């Protein structure tokens, strides 16, 4: 059953573990059978508690307050939990009443105080909190109507009969009504919390089950089949192909878990599964925070995403380079790919690259929608796109590229990008800009950062190609 926790002007209903053999829920049910209906609730609670061990009592106290002692509630942990809650809400909210409420007032449904209350009520489990929050808005609509979704429910929303029940029967109300505990339990624990509910006897009075039981009696208990919630999954494509062709037969991957749908496969974009879709959704949610974070916080975000994949039983896998080639195997229905797990460094590199790809796509999209910046007069340090290669800015770019070409060729892809960015900054430090002709050909426009990087990278490739061609011509001349 659910137990009310008194907070200033608020009520939080926390779910007890009714599956445990020694839980208070089972004790209350057994006590009620042998107890007169007029017996005080406190006596029943004491009798049930006497049957519990010290550890069980401690566990029930943690459930009562909605959080265990070992939960680290510092600001960073809370922010991570809120991000996790946001991720699960984005997965589950499509077509729900929560999505309707979000359209009416986004600030109300994303209220930090409201989300923290649901996290506390679910022992800081983001997924359970998201499910409870979605059900909260569903029952709120059923009980009070769509117009009440994004406003606080107060005692003024009760009718006269409910007010009378609230004032006269108090906590014993639940046990004297024909509604059985196990029928109400699902509704109560699903509802989760009433935000801003005010008691009738003043702000310091305790709100109990009676008000909630009166609200829930408006409903006919016709949704019992919803007790077994079906998990909401992100739509994905080709997962059956991925599972059929991904036979995990390497010794580092346990055979019983072959074809795990939560695995993240490194096989390009031709094979996609639930694990890859979930990873992409996580990166999409955290992309803004990642872009604004420093190096240390970026590593923290990457590590958290890796832990989230592992927490769902997923692994980061790639085709074994010593085994059969993945490209040739893809064309065979009965082909088998030998998979190996990525190292910790490879996992971090994969997620970091995913963030880069998202930033690049966002930059291209914003460039399309951004109005062009026109330039009236070309400067001597400007780099021009097109055939104007004799411009001083273009000559300076070639000189810088020639000086950095040896270093550029020695480094990996990540360092190459850093070299390109540093070269662009050197040009801009002198007042240079990267310009391209406008569509009508009458003016010059400032290009995006992505286009400038592509211009410099192409310059490195062109000069390398020219040097190789010159070397070949010299060898041919000597021969």
UniProtKB/TrEMBL annotation:
Residues 17-36 are annotated as: Disordered. Residues 19-36 have a biased composition (Polar residues). It holds the Pfam family DUF6824. It comes from the Eukaryota. Residues 273-357, 382-462 form the DUF6824 domain. This is DUF6824 domain-containing protein. It comes from Cylindrotheca closterium.
């Amino acid at each position: 059953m659910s137990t009310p926790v008194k907070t200033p002007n608020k009520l939080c209903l926390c779910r007890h573990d009714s599956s445990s053999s020694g839980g208070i829920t089972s004790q209350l049910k057994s006590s009620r059978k042998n107890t007169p209906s007029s017996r005080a609730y406190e006596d029943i609670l004491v009798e049930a508690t006497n049957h519990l061990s010290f550890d069980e009592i401690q566990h029930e106290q943690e459930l009562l307050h909605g959080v265990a002692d070992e939960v680290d509630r510092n600001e960073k942990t809370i922010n991570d939990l809120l991000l996790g809650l946001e991720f699960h809400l984005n997965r589950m909210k499509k077509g729900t009443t929560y999505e309707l409420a979000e359209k009416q007032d986004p600030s109300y449904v994303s209220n930090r105080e409201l989300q923290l209350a649901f996290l506390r009520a679910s022992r800081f489990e983001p997924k359970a909190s998201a499910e409870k929050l979605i059900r909260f808005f569903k029952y709120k609509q059923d009980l009070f109507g769509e117009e009440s979704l994004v406003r606080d429910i107060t005692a003024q929303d009760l009718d006269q009969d409910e007010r009378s029940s609230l004032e006269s029967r108090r906590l014993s109300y639940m046990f004297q009504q024909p509604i059985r505990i196990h029928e109400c339990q699902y509704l109560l624990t699903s509802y989760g919390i009433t935000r801003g509910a005010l008691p009738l006897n003043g702000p310091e009075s305790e709100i109990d089950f009676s008000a909630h039981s009166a609200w829930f009696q408006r409903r006919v208990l016709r949704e019992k089949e919803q007790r077994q919630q079906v998990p909401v999954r992100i739509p994905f494509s080709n997962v059956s192909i991925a599972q059929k062709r991904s036979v995990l037969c390497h010794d580092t991957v346990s055979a019983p878990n072959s074809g795990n749908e939560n695995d993240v496969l490194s096989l390009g974009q031709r094979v996609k599964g639930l694990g890859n879709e979930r990873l992409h959704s996580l990166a999409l949610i955290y992309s803004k925070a990642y872009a604004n974070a420093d190096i240390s916080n970026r590593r923290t975000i990457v590590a958290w995403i890796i832990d989230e994949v592992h927490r769902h039983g997923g692994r980061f896998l790639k085709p074994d380079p010593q085994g059969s080639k993945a490209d040739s195997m893809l064309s065979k229905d009965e082909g088998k790919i030998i998979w190996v797990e990525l190292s910790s460094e490879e996992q971090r590199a994969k997620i970091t690259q995913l963030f880069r790809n998202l930033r690049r796509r966002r930059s291209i999209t914003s460039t399309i929608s951004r109005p062009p910046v026109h330039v009236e007069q070309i400067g001597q340090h400007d780099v021009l796109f097109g055939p104007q290669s004799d411009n001083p800015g273009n000559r300076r770019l070639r000189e810088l590229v020639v000086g950095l070409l040896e270093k550029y060729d020695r480094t990996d892809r990540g360092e190459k990008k850093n070299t390109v960015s540093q070269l662009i900054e050197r040009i801009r430090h002198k007042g240079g800009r990267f310009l391209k002709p406008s569509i009508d050909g009458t003016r010059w426009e400032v290009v995006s950062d992505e286009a400038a990087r592509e211009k410099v990278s192409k310059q490195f490739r062109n000069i390398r190609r020219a040097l190789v061609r010159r070397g070949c011509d010299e060898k041919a001349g000597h021969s």
